[in-house]
Input
Amino acid sequence: MHEVSFEETLDVIRSKDPRYAKDGYLFVREALDYTQKLIGKNNRGRIRHVCGQELLGGIRDFALAQFGPMAMMVFEEWGIHCCEDFGEMVFNMVEIGLLAKTEKDSRADFQGGYDFYDALRKPFLPPSKQRPPRETTPAASPGH
Output
């Protein structure tokens, strides 16, 4: 009997949900491995379950290491525009049995992660090219 490969399983996922490129799924799997290794280093080598927010941090760090200032553009090419997209991809893989989850895990774990511009582009921009902080400044008084 033919054992189905990871990539063949991704073809099944993409036939049901074509929003994300196969390379995006491969990247998420590699980022999960990267995140587990980082957590393992801090946890005396023991591998444990990675929650959504931890995975998002690992995805960010792995993307910056792999793609540098091109990370945001690569994600866009793969159909990934926000952290919630990573949640969709993870749960597509969970539903088909490629990844496991606990009863506490949900797509909501990926909501409100980080702004792609701030996380992926800003670290590489000179201060003169960075967009201003989102804080509002008080309006100047009339006549001043």
Remarks:
- Helices lie at 6-16, 22-42, 52-67, 71-77, 83-95, 116-121.
- The chain is about 50% helix and 0% strand.
